Amino acid sequence: MLSDARFSADKMRHRDATSPQPQKAAEPPRAEREDGIFVFMDPPEHTRLRRSLTGQFTVRRMRELESRVTEIAVEHIEAMKAAGTEADLVPAFALPLPSLVICELLGVDYADRAEFQERTAVGLNASSTPREQAMARAELHAFMRGLVAAKRSNPADDLLSGLIHDTDPPLTDAQLVDVALLLLTAGHETTANMLGLGTFALLEHPDQLAALRADPGLIDNAVEELLRFLSILQLGVSRVATEPVTLGGVDLPAGATVVIATPEVNRDPRHWDDPDTLDVRRPRTPHLAFGHGVHQCLGQQLARIELRIGLGELISRLPGLRLAVPAEQVPVRNEMLIFGVRSLPVTWS
Ligand code: HEM
């Protein structure tokens, strides 16, 4: 379905007229808007925007980011250790790490990072009220507009400056703001929840954690296995049929929405032996945690870097890392599009 051109990511345009109406019914069709949220676009619009961005995810930039990710991870773990032997890993580590990595990627000034992080934490936090979220998102929008203006007049060696100055034909300010916001929303909550839930999963499987401690070279494998096993985008990937389609023997009318149950796919016994078991030594096979087809996650290389370094540093720098409360008291985000933990009280030796 994800590689079938009869399905569209532009749900507003192709939605079945009988589906519930969106709140902003008067919105113009996407093609007439100057926006850049290309995850909800189809080719060729999607292709142009995505291509301008893939040109910025260079090997050199990823390599540089890798050393910054290590610095950020180590800084936060050392701050936790300096403060005692207990912490809530979500605010202390899982949320700030991806937020600061996006700051690096977009080239947010050091002086503005506290403000950026605060707005991100509220705007993307499932526990904030809808009003708090809406206000923080409006502020983030204004922040990105300011950032685009600053990079236009004062380019630096960051992705946003590259997008502004290297893209031909150039992107509009509205597109640039949307692309920056897309990177933030797509790259922050996902990675933060993988870090929190991934740590929880390892703590709940002490044999797997012990295997990783004994052989840190298993970390790449472990990251891939955690992505498969946890499938945090539990209801995340959906498309709309643009014409009548028969899919898996089911006749779908034009406008029907199909949602992929990623956790089911990633635990398909036809593809994995013993799929409900977390096994960090499992040979790597393709999974659907980053999607598939033209919209396959653009930041997957960066996400893997953050998870490998983030989880690796936690394990090596916090000997005896364990839960500080019984596992059943860890609050999970069951009802959210992205699965995860709201907080993760941990302690170490
Ligand atoms: C798209 C998962 C991290 C940027 C996607 C999609 C999935 C996904 C499943 C496909 C959505 C669809 O087909 O509708 C994840 C997971 C992550 C992660 C599980 C972390 C573990 C990141 C990061 C970034 C990022 C770190 C960038 C900083 C994007 C973008 C898209 C995307 C821009 C849209 C691509 C397109 O439409 O062409 N992600 N992602 N993601 N992701 Fe990620």
TrEMBL record:
Residues 1-35 are annotated as: Disordered. Pfam families: p450. Gene3D superfamilies: Cytochrome P450. Residues 7-17 have a biased composition (Basic and acidic residues). One of its GO terms (molecular function) is monooxygenase activity. Coiled coil: none annotated. The keyword Oxidoreductase applies. PROSITE patterns: CYTOCHROME_P450. Keywords: Heme, Iron, Metal-binding, Monooxygenase, Oxidoreductase. InterPro entries: Cyt_P450, Cyt_P450_B, Cyt_P450_CS, Cyt_P450_sf. Belongs to the cytochrome P450 family. This is Cytochrome P450. It comes from Nonomuraea zeae.
